[in-house]
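G., the chain you wanted modeled:
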Amino acid sequence: MTSSFDGIRVLEVGSRRSVQVAGQLLALLGAEVLVVEPPAGSSERHQGALAPADGPAEERSISHWYYSAGKSSTILDLDDDRGRAALDALIEPGVILLDGLDEPLVPSSARDDWNLARPQSVYCRVSAFGDDGPWSGFLDSDLVSLALGGVMASCGYDDEEDLSPIAPAGGQTGHIGGVTVAIAVLAALRDLGRTGLGQSVDVAEHDVLAVCTEMANTYWEAQHINPRRATGRHARPYPSPPWNHPTADGKYFCCLPLYLDDSRFRAMVEWFGAHGMAEDLHDERYRVLAERSKHMDHIVAVIRDFCRTQPADVLFREAQRRRLPWSVVNGPEELLADPHLSARGAFVPVVDRDRGATWLAPAVPFRLHGSPATPPARPPLLGEHDCVWDSEAPGWLGDLPMSPGNDAARPLDGLRVLDFSWSVVGPTITRTLAALGADVIKVEWPAHADPMRTTMYRAGEQAKSLDNGPFFANLNIGKQGLSLNARSEEGMRIVRQLLAESDLVVESFSATVFRRWGLDYAELRRINPGIIYVNASGFGHSGPYEEFVTWGPTAQAFNGLTAVSGLPHRQPAGWGWSFMDVIAGAVGTVATLGALWHRDRTGEGQEVELAQVETGLAFQGPSLLAAQLLDSLPVRVGARTIDADEEIACFRGEAGVPYNVYPTAGGDQNDYCAVTVLTDTQWRRLCRVIGADDWLDDTELDHVEGRARRQDEIDERIRAWTAERDKWTVMELLQAARVPAGAVQSPEDRLEADPQLRHRAMFQTLEHPDLGNYRFEAAPFRLSRTPPRLCAVWPSIGAHNAEVLGGIGLDEHDLARLDETGVTWPVGMPRRITVERSLW
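Predicted structure as tokens:
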């Protein structure tokens, strides 16, 4: 099947991982991606670990194999005028230029002129902090970015005092940033196809990280409190019982007691009781959720004791049989043989005859059933391809409008989205679609409202309701609210009318719900042949685990992301929020925009399927390859990039010594600063700043190999120096000396003190009908001509019934009748639904 992305040409310049990941996603969609490499090759080629394969070292990097799969490679020296001229010649109409160089190919002041000279091309600048603002000149690393972006403030341990924050492994700055780059580029591409005009895109990784930590910023804005790190579970402002417990066979098992409704709790107690281990959980006092919450420490202790008696796989299958959203904490090596992932083709074989190697690579992290994505292919040899495009001039350029479009319109203006999603994954997709201009209608039934409505409230809130939860408000900004009982006959008739007039429908129920409603894709297509059906579930809509249930922490436990992060010889630290909810929503947005491009070109709708556990495989590709190709398995090393055996670890896309996070003066849990040395020159600069002149005379430390042998000694001395200074002073002294360093920023730091986020307007104040003036997270990317925008609209339950239902011909008498008969509001339920306590 020919891809609708045939003829989309992408130039990938620079070794920033965000650019590599964005290029990877566009290649998987079917675009031709040409990587412009310097004569010595991209830096990724020179990062360990090296696979045992044929060829020189630059052809054996596991990281290069993963991130360059399916791309082409050409050599250009961009420090040379001829190299620049050759690059310019490649920028033909319809080309997308991804610029991840340290210095931009097109300075900010010249981008308008660049767009005028190339009106049908897209320039995307990707940087650490943006090309202007107080921190635009800062040096970065994965660790520095995760510290300043706030990720590390939420990740770590709480079972021992004075343990440093943890940076999740795998070079996640680039993964999170790269998905956002792909979203922004696809939005600009759709606008190009609609109007005939290209534009410039600006993505700063710092912006992206600052708004990816789920509830952390809301805790500060709503309650003026910073959450505290917790081992393998959500960071919260107050202590919480553990979720990950050791099993009889030496593994860990992720149990989420918070999400057990009455029926699931009873099923759990009966299960434990059959083994004589339910203790007193049969008592009447545990039958009500509010009462269970008062005794959660005891309930978790019972769960912990039970887990210790059972093998992890037995726990997983028996828990899921009872609809408990629990999972084994898998390592990457265990995923390759998992029967569900195998049945769904989550890994595809890559055969590289030039290197004499074969491996299994994660398949595309989403499924476009009407325009299947391109499976990963072998990575290119250095300079394997000529400095020309392989494909013919893109035919779709001939379909572009002859006159410019409306500059004020956003890329998705005019699209209607019917949103049945709940929790975080689906609403993350539709939040971005709304910011890009789509008309999003959130459909709910008040008796079973989205639980995120009650996740948290402002400090001192006395009138808690379904409409004044600040986390829900941030997650669902820009959407309309429709209350409708889709399970009633008349409610379903209305749903079908709305589907007939919608462009997309999004749902994030478990796999069989829409089928039980009679709304599988075949029926949706019958109702509306052009509709795009986006579904997001834990394990996907097929396979042995199809009906298994997950929450974000379950998915990241299952797919290996929890296991790879943490300190050696301790349990995994994992992530301090539902990372898989947030990032699966971002990946789902990429897939949705890809499906929209296909429909724009062909008129065809399709089904888009997102399985959270599979999405996460793409965020640890090198670890999965290493588990197959190397003798040793990846190990947890905390923040470091080189382990105790002096081997490259963590696959951060860089390696250096020192590379760690150090305590600073102040005593707060976030009084730490990340310090990273990536070159020998930076090492000498560091020595001068901290007064370590003796190290300058120590020839063993002149190179990273020698420093790796003495990491503990180096860390101890730096720790003594940082402990006498606050984190801001440490950062500023080192950055002034051109050494990458970054304070571990709390939500308070990001919202109140970060000058770069303020400069880039990443938190915007809008007036909410219940919350008043309140700060909301902005979209973390810029489009020069059609920028995303937050609109001061929120889906209070039923608030837009008259507008939405009036649009399908219902008048005020019809609306009154629907209310009275329980179709649009539960009979006897008050309009203002109060809440006794928050979910968290």
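The chain has a mean pLDDT of 95.

Shout if anything looks off.
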